[in-house]
Every structure is written in structure tokens, then in C-alpha cells.
Amino acid sequence: MHSFHAVILGIVEGVSEFLPISSTGHLILSARILNIPQTDFVKSFEIIIQLGAILSVIVLYFKTLVKNSRIIKLLCAAFIPTGIVGYFLYKLIKRFLIGNVSVVFWSLLLGGIFIILFELMHKEKPDATDDMVSITYPQAVLIGLFQVLAIVPGVSRSAATIIGGLICGLKRKTIVEFSFLLAIPTMLAATILDLSKNAASFSSGEFFALAIGFVTSFVVAILAIKFLLAFIQKHSFIAFGVYRVLIALLFLLTMGLS
Predict the structure, then answer these.
(1) Distance (Å, whole) CA 160 – CA 24
(2) Angle, nearest 10°, between helix axes 238-255 and 23-33?
């Protein structure tokens, strides 16, 4: 992988990790557009550079995490379903799902349609939970169960957790921020698991590419987080649903599913 490719994929990761459009799906599609073969290293790269985006959350929400031990406990509860499923299905996910263009296409398309329909029907209740500290443990676990859906490339971890939180009765800003924070244990665990199994096979050049992708995704993700927090103050997620449908159809028309 060239340094240029690492920068491009880092930008794609930073922009898409926290938006409900699927960072994994966009990384797979971007790699295909750039003619980057889906080797074992590239699949690992697509997992590991997400940690750069996660670091941006730690930087922006460090005080929140330090001052609120209850939020950390809620994040642990929400992570449990994903941790269990990810650990036992790791080989299946990496071998058959990551890099599968057909899976990405259908996930983007159907996910986009679902987001549009959900937003048209969803009405936020006046008594919706408006503070992360007020989230209950059952709500946290249910959000974690929704996150499990994101093991399928193209579903979007952000979209799954946000919709799950809205269904659970959380306010939009509350679940968006909780989704940001839930990415920390989720992506950290995914990265550690992948590195433990594959790091020994990486060359020095591949580690350098990882470093470039990591730094790039970190910087871009900070901007993406600030954008999303401002966006949700006045808009629903319908625009992201439409975007998912359009990019899925564009990909189908220009590249096919072979």
C-alpha cells in the first residue's frame, strides 16, 4: 500500500466513522476504487486505523470520561454484546464479510432506506433522556445489541447505535455522544484482537502505512465529530439515508458487484 493510499483511506475513515454512513463500507469501496487488493493486511488496515478516529473521541471527551464513572460503566454494559459476538465470529467476519462488495452494497442501500423511513416515523418524546448519566443499564445493553448489527460491513456502527438509542427513548444529542464514546471500547477491542493475530506478519512498510492512516483519521475525525454535533441541532438523518442510497446505486452502476 502506497503512502498516498494510506492518506486517502485515513481521510475516508475520519470522515465516515461517526457519521451514519458506514466507515468500513466506505473504506472497502474506496480501496476498490483505488484498485487496492483486499489482502489480509488491507483488511487489518481497515480495522486498525479506526483507532485513530477513536483517539479523537478520547481527546474531545476526556473530561467527561474522567468525571463520570457511571458513563464508563454504561459503556462497558453496552459493549458486552459486541465483545462476545466479535470474539467468537472474528474469523467469519474477516474471511467472508470484510471486503465483500455485495454485502456492502446491500447494507448501504437497505440501511439508507431504513434510516429515511425511521426518521419519517420517529417522534421524539418530551420526556426523552437528555443526559448520558441518566441512561439506564437496560437501555445501554439494548444499544449494544443494536451495535452488533454493525459487524456486517456497510451497516454503520454509528447508525445502528443512534437508531437503537432513539428507539430506547434517548434524545438525539444524547445518543449521538454516547455512540461516539461507545466506539472507544468497541474499536479498541477490535484493533487489539486483529493486531494480536496479524501484527507479526506486517512489514515495516505496512506499519508505516498504518501510522499514516492512523494520524490522518485522527485529525479528520475531530472535524467530523464537531460537524455532526452541529448538524443534528437542526436536521434529522434523512440526508444521510439519501446519501447511502445514492452512493450504493452509483457504485452498482459504475463498478458492479463482481
Answers:
(1) 13
(2) 30
